[in-house]
Amino acid sequence: MSPNEKLLLLFSGVATLLFVATLVGRFLAARAQTDAAREVTRNLVERIDAWWVMIVIFAVCFLLGQGATLLLFALASFYTLREFVSLTETKPADNWPLIGAFYVMLPGQYILIAMDWYGMFSILIPVYGFLLTPILAALAGDVDDFLLRVARVQWALMLTVYCISHAPALAMLAIPGFENQGFLLLFFLLTVVQFSDVMQYVFGKLFGRRKIAPRISPSKTLEGLVGGGAAATLLGAALFWITPFSPLQAGAMALAIVAMGFLGGLSLSAVKRSMGVKDWGRMVKGHGGVLDRMDSICFSAPVFFHLTRYFFT
């Protein structure tokens, strides 16, 4: 089966599952009797509707090629960076570091991926972005909370640009016998991450009793993590045929993705709670902001990228 045939089969399968989920969601919404049940089903329906939009976007990117995928993730980095910065306290003196982040580091990172220049892609933000941010902040001449202000911009860059960019960078991996199939690895990553999030939500609602971190994320339960994580790991193992991995290796990779996705969501929930907000934004109906959908990818994408690069290239 060619890569295009595999992707066509995968998208068809996802569309079928979403169609079934849409029917189930509408059925549950019609039968909801209490306010609590109506709220849960409303949230479920909104999530399913948002997934239709996201799947259509990814399908269009697939049809248009790697450049469209890079542009999509560059836009995702832009919007997540904007959401992060908009919720943190900034001063006029931070304008130059922010200009450097938005208009130098962000496009530079994705241009390096397009150029397939791994050496510079891997150090641009951790090294040169780390150095450029305090230089631009110091030139502004404002020393009040200097370290805190610089750290916010650096952390935002690492999280929303550097980490997210590892997802489309999967296409630059030169895996013997798996050339020009990076989109399949991206599909594997996104499918495992999002399926894990959905199944953790479902298992948590059905069986959740023991909260993992009630002050940070009251909805995250041990039962949801174990049940959803196991389901996503099994799905990853079942998708071995679209990867260069064996079934056992695919399951291990999926487990790593699930673990890092969960920890990423928990970490960014802690950041949100520290700022007194529930969501990063309101751009995605039923999901909050773009960063609310990308938080798991922020942590799982670089780990998956480097595990794949280390063991398979």
Structure description:
It is a single chain. The protein has 313 residues and is mainly α. The protein has three domains: 1-64; 67-165; 169-313, no CATH class. The chain is built from eleven helices and no strands. The longest helix has 30 residues, at 35-64. The protein is globular, with a radius of gyration of 20 Å. The chain starts with a helix and ends with a helix. The model has no long low-confidence stretch (mean pLDDT 88).
Chart the SSEs and their pairings.
Layout: H1 3-31, H2 35-64, H3 66-86, H4 95-114, H5 118-121, H6 124-139, H7 146-165, H8 182-207, H9 222-238, H10 247-274, H11 290-312
Helix pairs in contact: 1-2, 2-3, 3-4, 3-7, 4-6, 4-7, 6-7, 7-11, 8-9, 8-10, 8-11, 9-10, 10-11
Brief sketch in words of this structure:
The protein is mostly helical and 313 residues long. Helices cover 75% and strands 0% of the residues. The protein contains eleven helices and no strands.
Uncertain segments of ≥5 residues (pLDDT<50)?
none
What sequence of helices (H) and strands (E) makes up the elements? HHHHHHHHHHH
Shape: globular
Mean pLDDT: 88
Radius of gyration: 20 Å
Secondary-structure class: mainly alpha
How many domains? The number is 3
Note the beta-strand portion: under 5%
Q: Give the number of DSSP strands.
A: 0
Summed up, the helix count is 11
Helix content: over 70%
Largest sheet: none
N-end to C-end Cα span = 22 Å
